[in-house]
Amino acid sequence: MTQSTDEWAQLEARITANEVELTNLRSDMTQRFTELEARVSSNESSIDLAGLRNISTARSLAAHQDNVREVMGELADRVVALVLDLLGRIEAIERRLNRGEE
Q1: Which domain holds residue 24?
Q2: What is the pLDDT of residue 90?
Q3: Measured between alpha carbons, how far is 17 from 8 in angstroms, rounded to an integer?
Q4: Distance (Å, rounded) from C-alpha 73 to C-alpha 56?
Q5: Total domains, the chain
Q6: Which is nearest to 6 in space by CA: 102, 96, 83, 84?
Q7: 62 or 90, higher pLDDT
Q8: 35-56, pLDDT tens digit by residue?
């Protein structure tokens, strides 16, 4: 019974640590998304102001926007990978605990 109790305590500690990590990651992503959205908006304004007269500048700004979207996608992929990893760890611990109870 003590081993099972210890494993539950470890599971709860990991869950708490993972919740903190997810909260920090969420905060970081929110900040980055806000910054990226501001850059995209600024770039769109710059393109509008240029009136597309300077095609090379417009292309450069459009490429930057593509980079911003790519970074946002990479951040989202990191969050998904982290959540899947955490779920896998929790499921593995639950399986071990269930085997101990049988």
Answers
A1: 2-101
A2: 84
A3: 14
A4: 26
A5: 1
A6: 96
A7: 90
A8: 877 887 787 777 666 665 566 6
